[in-house]
Amino acid sequence: MKQKQGFGSSLMKMMTNTAFKLDSLLSEDIKQNELMYIFGQEIQNVDSFLQLKETFIWFSYRANIQYEGKALSDQGWGCLIRVGQMIVANSLIRDNSNSKLNDLKTKIISLFDDNEYFSTKAPFSIQQIIKKASLIYNLKIGDWYTGPKIMCLLEELFLSAKTIKQLKIINFLEQCIIEQQIDLQFKQPQLLVIHAIIGNKELDQYFVAELKKHIQVPQFAGAIVGKNKKAYFLIGYQNNQGIIMDPHYVQESNLLQLNSQLKCTPLKQFSGTIALCYYISSSQDYVQFKTALKELNGSIFSIIDETCTCFF
């Protein structure tokens, strides 16, 4: 029998969603006819923006998740899980322009399905993540995750997952890409995740400028960013505003959400702990990626080649 959460959880859901809506009202609007960069693409008009926005996949907190005979919610502790899921989902949708968009999005979202009837088959559902986190990190329900932990868990889950296309996640925890860890033949697309510390409580003017340059790299696939102990999915910027997907909204576990929710937040307000993600589809793509990074002079991270030479 399906379990339901109690009145207290419903009240918390209402408060969280009210705060989400208020924050949306107070945040600066995206100027759809002005220059912005999203997922490494330069966008300058409303048609291009709306066309790209249709491809986005947004995940958020869920209520009444069925797990081991109980109903639970990840509200208050699962935002990094949802950001990690968004990184993977929005990476999977790249290079699939020939598919019918809504069918493709539905197929990808099903890989993350929290619904009790499908979660055992969905390789990246929160139930599967909770199980793997307990096994590897001894994390319990309600424990906070870190960027490295959630992305390493997803890397591990990918090893046994059957998805719409092969994708390899590689985490780099030392603020540099080590080429020995990459398949330079690129038999499958690779998602490079570089975990970095680039400041303290907030970003200074220098790192705001450098972060914007890294977002402009064509292979940019988003970033994990934090603000006030909350995690967000940074997908781009406009002027000095970061464009984010915010997971701090509670939906029912059986609801399929095809529409994405975007917000703007000043880049300088993000903390200095970040994880930058780049989707590399081929050897040629990787050469282009390295060329773009060389111009950035290793301001956030560097690349170490097979001879242990650091090139920037």
Give the topology, please:
Blueprint: H1 7-26, E1 36-38, E2 41-43, H2 46-53, E3 62-63, E4 65-67, E5 70-72, H3 79-92, H4 101-110, H5 126-137, H6 147-158, E6 168-172, E7 176-178, E8 190-197, H7 205-216, E9 220-227, E10 230-238, E11 241-245, E12 251-252, E13 262-266, E14 273-280, H8 283-294, E15 302-304
Parallel strand pairs: 3-12, 6-8, 7-15
Antiparallel strand pairs: 1-2, 1-10, 4-5, 8-14, 9-10, 9-14, 10-11, 11-13
Helix pairs in contact: 3-6, 5-6
SSE pattern, N- to C-terminal: HEEHEEEHHHHEEEHEEEEEEHE
Strand content: 15-25%
Envelope shape = globular
Q: Between the first and last Cα atoms, what is the distance in angstroms?
A: 58 Å
Q: What portion of residues is helical?
A: 25-40%
Mean pLDDT across all amino acids:
91
Poorly predicted spans: none
- What Rg do the Cα atoms give? 19 Å
Number of strands: 15
Structural class: alpha+beta
Number of domains: 1
Number of helix segments? 8
Quaternary structure: single chain
Biggest sheet statistics: 9 strands, mixed
Main location: cytoplasm
Function: Cysteine protease that plays a key role in autophagy by mediating both proteolytic activation and delipidation of ATG8 family proteins.
Protein name: Cysteine protease
EC number: 3.4.22.-
